[in-house]
Amino acid sequence: MNDFLAARSQMALSLGFHIVYACIGMVMPFFMAVSHYRWLRTGDIIYKNITKAWSKGVAIFFATGAVSGTMLSFELGLLWPTFMKHAGPIFSMPFSLEGTAFFIEAIALGFFLYGWDQFNRWFHWFTGVVVGISGLASGILVSAANAWMNSPAGFDFVHGEYLNIDPIKAMFNDAWLFQALHMTIAAFAATGFAVAGVHALMILKKKNIPFHTEAFKIAAIFGGIASVLQPISGDFSAKDIARRQPAKLAAMESHFHTGKSAPLYIGGIPDKKNKKVDYAIVLPGMLSFLVHGNFTDEVKGLDAIPEEDQPPVAITHYAFQIMVGMGIFMMLVSLLLFISRWKRKWPKQKWFLRFFVIATPAGFIAVEAGWTVTEVGRQPWIIQGIMRTADAVTPMPGIVYSFYLFSLIYLSLTVAIVFLLSRQIKMVPVLYDTSNLTAQPE
Amino acid sequence: MIMQYVVIVYLWLAILLYLVLGGADFGAGIIELVTTSRNKPGVRKTLYQAIGPVWEANHMWLVIAIVILFAGFPEIYSQISIHLHIPLLIMLMGIIARGTAFAFRHYDAVQDDMQHWYNHIFVSSSFITPLFLGIIAGSTFSGKINLEADGFLSAYVFSWLNWFSVTVGLFTVALCGYLA
């Protein structure tokens, strides 16, 4: 592995790690707010217990997300100093606002976690809502910063110089809205399905059923609504990418030849040398329809892009197929959930819950695959059309070792967190069994 | 030109607040390090009550300082990142180890031998992080960074591994302990 590849891998690993914690930290507060609201309204102790149990999980995820996010703000410079030297002043606006939002989030989380029975009940509830809103704002701002790399704006690039910098224009670049929308909905879908899946498993194992059923309902409804909305937002994003980054779209779809009535390939193995896709299901004209709204219009293929500006086709294509596949699966499971409003027997049946158990990791697989699409699909550029990733990397040798070290850290942290969460979940019957109120902590 | 000074003031404010507030959090770990094992459980409890609710928020001053640095002085940020890569990396690992160990030891639902590990990691990283923070600060303002150096050691190691920087690092550790 050379240093350049190591630097890219280390960045991918760090982002891939952080995104999971960021999503959970940003979405869980909303689940907690709903369950907390029900506790305050109905006085049913189950909802209080759910809120408390979730808040412990969130505290672990939040701490990990906070430190892994800090690492990222340094890694940007450690690995890509040339990029930061030029991009820093231009796209720092969303980062500084994100810092502020995170600051508010951390303070509000402190209030929320340590404020049980200390504050006015509704003020305490409100601090939880503030955690969610500021987390959401952070996510949107970071997506806006990434969108700038896909759609650079707010400066004039003259003879290699970055002039007339306008940070506001840079923040509200062409890509920010659809990218932030897609990411936000993805976070809700992924977290909703992950949480619902864990609770569904516990119901199947007959552990404290009333507790897990109520928790399941809240998470599944959030995840379900998000999964149904996501294909719409995905359609916006695809049309947007076709307009701004035709190379990325062509790689996603393995679309080698520019032409009218462009076909859509589902699955398949892209063969870059012979410029064709093997073993795919081919839907004639469908790509033109998805991009332009009719079956005949022209879609730019990879042949319209110089060889040295093309992204890796296979990785982008596979990642895109995985993302869409997972998205469709989650959407179908969500439909079951909505039909179960009328078929009231379903939620108690094993097959229904099993679907949710199977779908537990689906959302996060889709999130990781989606980031792979957007990041690998932008290659070889770090700033689309302006700066190449290879020109941005640090001159320091030996990044390979730093990559190994980071892999080790992230691996051990993942193991530690899975271990801690499984312990939390195992303790639910002891801590939150309503028939055994004396075992309550505090 | 006046704008530069405004930015520098904010940058210093962020660094100062990080050192005072975040430094006290590191210091809490340093106090735990020098406490006799008999008194440790009591110290741990007090320490948790003192820094538990605030350390994440205090931590944000570092991120704010970094954002101001790369927005306002990107050239400096990029040179520091290149030449002080190694101490920055160690500091980052200290930050991640300390934060997670601290959260894990409180939120682990079962109290068993794992606590021992969390404590060790928390205490040692509470020492290492401010040490390297000080080393980075010392190397930055002492002019030890040689921008022309081309050998690996002279460019990436001796920029920060020198008596002055290490002394500043140790001084920072003492300062954090004192603050706490």
List keywords for this structure.
heterodimer, A: 442 residues, mainly alpha, two-stranded antiparallel sheet, 14 helices, globular, B: 180 residues, 0% strand
Q: Can you characterise this structure?
A:
The complex is a heterodimer of chains A (442) and B (180). Chain A has helices at residues 3-42, 45-79, 81-114, 121-150, 167-171, 176-204, 209-244, 246-252, 286-292, 313-339, 350-358, 362-376, 389-392, 399-432, and strands at residues 156-158, 161-163, 264-266, 269-271, 276-278, 281-283, 381-383, 387-388. Chain A has 442 residues and is mainly alpha-helical. In chain A, helix 1 crosses helix 12 (362-376), helix 2 (45-79) runs antiparallel to helix 3 and helix 4 crosses helix 6. Residues 435-442 of chain A have low confidence and may be disordered. With 180 residues, chain B is mostly helical. Chain B contains eight helices and no strands. The longest helix of chain B is centred in the first third of the chain and has 33 residues, at 2-34. Chain B starts with a helix and ends with a helix. The model of chain B has no long low-confidence stretch (mean pLDDT 82). Classes of the chains: A mainly alpha (442), B mainly alpha (180). At the A-B interface, helix 2, helix 3 and helix 14 of A face helix 3, helix 4, helix 5 and helix 7 of B.
